[in-house]
Amino acid sequence: MTVKRDLKRIIRARMARTGEPFTKARQHVLRARRESQGATPAPPAAAGPEPSAEPQLEATAATAVMSDASGPTRGAQPRSAVVLEAAVLRRGARSMRVRVLSTGEELTVRARELWHVMPGHVVTLSLVRQWRQRGHVYGAGEVQGARVDVPALGVPPLGLQAHGPLATEERSSPASEKPRATHALEVAPRTAWEMQEVPPRIEASDDASDLVLESLERKQRGDFTGALRALMALVAHDLRCLDAHAHLGNLVFQSYPEHALLHYEIGVAIGDFALGPDFAGLLPWSLEGNRPFLRCLHGWGLSLWRLGRIPEAARVFERLLQLNPADEQQARRCWAQAQAGNAWDADEGAP
User: Fold this and answer.
1) Residue 138 and residue 52: Cα distance in Å, rounded?
2) Which residue ranges does the record annotate as region Disordered (predicted)?
3) DSSP string over 142-185
């Protein structure tokens, strides 16, 4: 009786996964069991082709029995790892939601050592298991590598809108305190551009919820977990939401600057994908669509500075001044300190 109950449980698990009728599911399970025991396989059922498994995780009949909601099925053989690339949509402590680049399929992957993986990364995954539960696809494995590769994400670049020539009116400061790169750019007016801002609103129940505002309110109340979830939901909705990347970095800057650096770096890369390598215009802070990108750039510079990568930080602050000479973010002061080789100080700058 125990063997029959186990067999029925395996058959029902397959029916739930594939939608097959009982008879067909039973045929496949019995054939898989015979093959795993070394018996001669029975002829395939004549009821049509077997529903395809996930494209990246196809298995033989002996290993195709997937775990049900309670865990791995008894008697299932371990499958060999399958390597694939995916875009990270959101991340938790032990799992992440990803989109497989080759198929567009989304699944939740459980893995260890995820601290270096952030939304917007492209990861190389080695998956050893996959299963379905309540209509969702899950996988288990490990991350072999993570990189910033915006073109591979498959998202369109943010739009740019020209606002015409704009004089570079910088706040008065001695010439010695200005980066050399900004002097040549002050000779003639440059075209001001405004970057497309992905609306920080998605549907929540029946009302549009501003998740950035919600995250800030939760942060002020000390609910850092709630703030993190709100921002993760926002960036999962659209990886191009630079405000979400900036505020994710701001949320962890004080405690985990190395994590903040990754959030800002991804936001900057998404913005640069829109600007292109030859961009020579202005992105004034006064045009609100530019603020998310400028926040990411400023946070990136501060994180580099705090982590001791001072020359890199100085170059980031210099670029901020090229893009926004009015300097509402006080990048000039940070640039001067970093250019002098001074270490980051909490009084000097925080996002």
Assistant:
1) 16
2) 30-79
3) EEEEEE--HHHHT-PPPPEEEEEEE---PPP--GGGS-HHHHHH
Task: Provide the residue range defining the domain that includes 13.
Answer: 2-51
Q: Write the CB contacts of 75 (distance below 8 Å, at least 6 apart in sequence).
A: 6, 10, 33, 36, 65
Tokens linked to 103: 């198929």
Query: Is the pLDDT confidence value at 225 over 60?
Result: yes
Cite the DSSP H helix spans in 96-179.
150-153
Structure-model confidence comparison of residues 147 and 57, the more confident one: 147
My answer on whether 277 and 164 are in the same domain is: yes
Q: What's the mean pLDDT in 88-116?
A: 94
When comparing pLDDT for 235 and 170, which is higher? 235
Which residues sit opposite 71 in a β-bridge? 68
Using the CB atoms, write b or e for 94-103: b if 16+ within 10 Å.
ebbbbbbbee
- Look at residue 57 and tell me if it is in a domain: no
> In total, how many domains does the chain have?
3
Share of the chain above pLDDT 90, in %: 57
- Mapped onto helix, strand or coil, the DSSP state of residue 37 is coil
**Residue 170, both tokens:** 């910088």
160-192: pLDDT as tens digits: 999 988 765 544 444 445 555 555 445 568 999
Question: HSE-up of 349 (CA within 13 Å, CB side)?
Answer: 26
Instruction: Give the pLDDT score at 252.
Output: 94
Question: Both 186 and 112 in a single domain?
Answer: no
Nearest to 139 by CA among 214, 67, 190, 235: 67
What mean pLDDT is predicted for residues 84-97?
A: 95
Location of structure tokens 């990754």: 262
How many whole angstroms separate alpha carbon 324 and alpha carbon 295? Answer: 12
Rounded CA separation 233/221 (Å): 19
**Do 186 and 331 share a structural domain?**
yes
pLDDT score of 140 more than 50: yes
The two tokens of residue 280 are 């020579």
- C-alpha to C-alpha distance for 129 and 111, rounded to whole angstroms: 11
Q: Is the Cβ–Cβ distance between 200 and 212 less than 8 Å? A: yes
